[in-house]
Amino acid sequence: TCPTTIRKLPGTVYILYDVNISEGFNLRRDVYIRMAVFIRRLRRRKRFRNVRLVLPPWPRLYHWHSMGLQQRDLMWRHFFDLASLRRYAPVLDFDEFLQEYRMFGMPAPPYVHVSQVFRLTHYEIMMEQGVFRDKYERITVDPSSVRPEACNEHSISGGALLQQHLLRYGRYNCMRFQGSAGLLEHLLRQALDEDTAGEDDQHDLRVYAVLSAETVLHDSWGDEHFWLARRSMRFARSLEQVAVDFMHTALQTTVAETGVQRPALWELERPKRDARGGNFLCAHLRRGDFVRSRETTTPTLKSAAQQIKQLLRLYNMTTVFLSTDATPYELLELKEELFYRFRFVHFTPESNAQRQLLKDGGVAIVDQIICSYARHFVGTYESTFTYRIYEEREILGFSKSTTFNTFCKALGGSCARNAVWPIVWSEDDDMDNQ
After folding, report:
1. If DSSP codes are grouped into helix, strand and coil, which group holds residue 21?
2. Which of 4, 95, 246, 410 is least buried, going by the fewest C-beta atoms within 10 A?
3. Cα–Cα distance, 54 to 51 (Å, whole number)
4. d(Cα 409, Cα 69) in Å, to the nearest integer?
5. Which of 149-153, 332-336, 411-415 comes out lowest in average pLDDT?
6. Which of 8-17, 193-202, 351-360, 384-393 shows the lowest mean pLDDT across its residues?
7. Which PANTHER family does the UniProt entry name for this protein (predicted)?
């Protein structure tokens, strides 16, 4: 007997994907948007009407330094509201995928058979006679012309997905890939043709995996489709509650006082530009590798403190919430710079039990949520963490002048600024707001 939930899923295609192991949390969120927009469009095709996007387990990331925490193979629901994601695209957490896969009654349980794996790599020469065009091709592995790790199926450089012990895969393809996510449709159709012997198996279940998915470009970056997917990426409610409680106790701010829009469903959000925010400034100051790799644009601690004090005076505020990866010694130095006239606030878990629940990724998200509700925000040049806060504040309804701000290398000097990418609403959203 075939379960009712499975009987209505003929020809189901599961798309697994992963991101280069060196990439951080916030870039991975951007890669998700590329894949979600692609999957939402792909399911309009008859052959892919039952396509599903499988969310890769979070590996231990480079910036997750805390010891004594279980920070491997974390599910997406630890950080995001899956019900919200699913109202945009058909997504499954990895353990949900395993559970659904077993319902098909596949042989050799509990193993999952991945029909083909595609490891994407960039073309060495991207422009042909000055023209960039979408293309892909399988690589015949030649150690003299291809980096060994690029096509090594046992390497985790393209992502840790294949290290999942329940996965078994057939063909491993090393691909040169150049183009947007839409180009993946051609690659998948070709794979389906290769894996289909005839009419008897054309509606069989298929599983494919795309590694190094950050190679894939956005189909339409920054347009209404991008923002629909971005708006659906609401954080887990438990993390939202931690941030709300901290703002209430440490910053004397309630969500109602900030004047932001936060309807129960993201689909009910409408164009807005008059959010007030709490009575505090938020500063996101990257340290760590930025001090070395972006020395010409990253301010010193003293310079950052001077700029924070200038903004506090300008907006007649006395409290700054600092989101940073600074060391405890650097935090102490910053606090001393601001101590006598201004209040310095920084989020840390209130107990070891809370730290175990939040983990490093959750702590960073709480920081982002709090910064999203600030009266004024200033971030770090070229930081993806800063850009995610920009996006969140655009959704909540803040003005561009209180959002798209960047620390300068030095107070009063020439300053490289982050690009301004305002939210784009659909025509239906605009009409409903009139």
Report:
1. coil
2. 4
3. 10
4. 35
5. 149-153
6. 193-202
7. GDP-FUCOSE PROTEIN O-FUCOSYLTRANSFERASE 2 (PTHR13398)
Specify whether the CB–CB gap between 140 and 151 falls below 8 A: no
Active site (annotated) includes residue 23 = yes
Residue ranges per domain, the chain? 13-227, 235-402
Total residues found in the chain within this entry: 434
Confidence of residue 150 (pLDDT cuts 50, 70, 90): low
Percent of all residues in the chain with a pLDDT value above 90, rounded to a whole number: 77
Nearest to 404 by CA among 385, 417, 423: 417
**pTM of the complete model beyond 0.85:** yes
The SS3 assignment for 310 reads: helix
What is the helix (H) or strand (E) element at residue 188, kind and residue range? helix 183-195
pLDDT computed for residue 106 by the predictor:
63
Confidence of residue 108 (pLDDT cuts 50, 70, 90): low
Fold held by 235-402: Rossmann fold (3.40.50)
Which residues does 369 contact at the CB level (< 8 Å), separation at least 6? 235, 239, 240, 243, 244, 392
- Among candidate residues 23, 391, 392, 394, the one labeled active-site is 23
Residue showing tokens 């790599």:
121
Structure tokens at 342: 């201004």
Beta carbons within 10 angstroms of residue 140's beta carbon: 9
What DSSP element (H or E) covers 116? strand 112-121
Predicted confidence at residue 433, as pLDDT, reads: 37
- For the domain covering 13-227, report its CATH number: 3.40.50.11340
Closest of 32, 49, 36 to residue 89, by C-alpha: 36
Lookup: tokens for 59: 């590996």
What's the rounded Cα separation, in Å, for the pair 247 and 27? 27
